[in-house]
Amino acid sequence: MTVPKFKIIKIEAYKPGKSNIGKIKNITKLSANESALGISPKVKKVLNIKNINLSRYPDGGAKLLKREISKKFKCDFNKIICGAGSDEIIQMICQLYLRSQDEVIVPQYSFLMYRIYAKIVGAKIVFSKEKNFKVSVSEIIKKVTKKTKIVFIANPNNPTGTYLEKRELIELRKKLRNNILLVLDDAYFEYMQNKNYKSSLDLFKNKENVITIRTFSKIYGLASLRIGWGYASKKIIKAMNLLNHHLT
User: What is the secondary structure of 113-141 as a DSSP string?
Assistant: First the structure.
């Protein structure tokens, strides 16, 4: 039997953290950055008593969730998009913005999904050097060319745990061309208490060329529910909703 031809995508496969190690029990797993505390008892209660109709499709626009997010973080309901984990938001960004041979800049030690989804759509991955395992604004700017379309940064960074200060993020956005999209992943922002740190959402809530990504998988301990969200201009969110066939 002849298998229909598919395109060969040269990417490194994402390797999730190990869930078990042979017959060893009671292992403390750190490799996937899952919550050691588990979910809130309040969430457990809701999941147990809520009459969830599994035979029906959920609201594709996630209106109830978006309403609660907008209240919690004091942001515009119409500038929010929800997805199956932040991974789906990253995937939609790459599908929406990237074409073959466009360039994407990522720090040399960064979350693998940025480069995986960018490569799937044919973009070229450009790595910027880090200094003492910290993302460097100057090294990112050195890598910018006419073909640069997106810069992806997790802040604080995964897997190094280092971070860019508020002034450094502002400097980076100023030095990048206006038509380069800056995607800032806030997956671990809740863990930051340093005074010189500001989350992407707080810094760039009204910027047209910044997308903020957040997740319920880490601090909320809801990894298995796969809930992520993004925040961007209404124009970008509208395009992403069309791409994802959401009816909002």
Answer: HHHHHHHHTTPEEEEEPEETTEE-HHHHH
Fold of 84-243: Aspartate Aminotransferase; domain 2 (3.40.640)
214 contacts 73 by C-beta, under 8 angstroms: no
Backbone angles phi, psi at 111, to 5 degrees: -60, 125
- Please give the single-letter amino acid code of residue 32: A
Q: At residue 74, what is the residue type? A: K
Cα 203 to Cα 217: distance, rounded to the nearest angstrom: 22
Whole-model pTM: value is 0.90
Determine what percent of the chain falls in helix, strand and coil, rounding each to the nearest 5. 35, 15, 50
Extents of the domains making up the chain: 84-243
Provide the pairing of β-strand 124-128 with 103-107.
Answer: parallel
Question: Is residue 19 over pLDDT 80?
Answer: no
